[in-house]
Write a structure and sequence with these properties.
By secondary structure, the chain is α+β, with helices and mostly antiparallel strands. It has five helices and eleven strands, in the order ββαββαβββαββααββ.
Amino acid sequence: MASSRLPLFLCSIVLQLVAHTIAQQDTPLDELCLSEMGNFTKKSKYKANLDRVLSTISSNPKINYGFYTASYGRNNDQVNAMALCRGDVNPNSCRSCIKTSAVELRKHCPNQKEAVIWYDYCMLRYSNRYFFGNMEFGPWFWMYNLHNVSDATTFNRDVATLLNILKNKAASGDNCRKFATGNATTTNSLTIYALVQCTPDLEKQQCIDCLNNATALLPKCCDGRQGGRVIAPSCNFRYEIGRFYDLTVT
């Protein structure tokens, strides 16, 4: 895994590589408690607002498109939160993932005003600053399959081509959903399956810019790997040689 441990509005590149294969659905892929943005106390107004926002998001029955934002409070005590589920996840699994995320963030980030957690199925983030509609690529991290392909050069090219096609499809989505999946067969008869996604609050070009930043990391994170992914607050992609997404939902 490679990640940047700086505030979410910074695009940083701090590499700490750890091999990782397929993550369990109930295990966080990564989480960040950003004390740089300030802390709050247990009896503060910010804490009360945060509890209200997280409760609203995690219990909302209308998260049918896998995307939800909420704000509560004023000035320095305002809390802004966003939940995003992977586009192929059904509503029940989506809500369950968001509920788990809210519990875990409270547990692991007890007094930070900004935090984010990623699971395989969803992302949940909150902050005392207004980040809706902003393309934020940092902090990011990557994960990759431990197995290599035999012809890395050709395979890398085919992965990049497929992701580029899906990037434009996802960016053309609406304000409820910016998500695309697809597959391609390589010259060595391997089938590559891929998924790309942006938070739907982004404009089309913002989504493209975010995914361009993500795919630019392919040579570093995933050179010749049978699978890999880059995950950031505003976008993510993943590819594997086996299908990992649910076609019935997409």
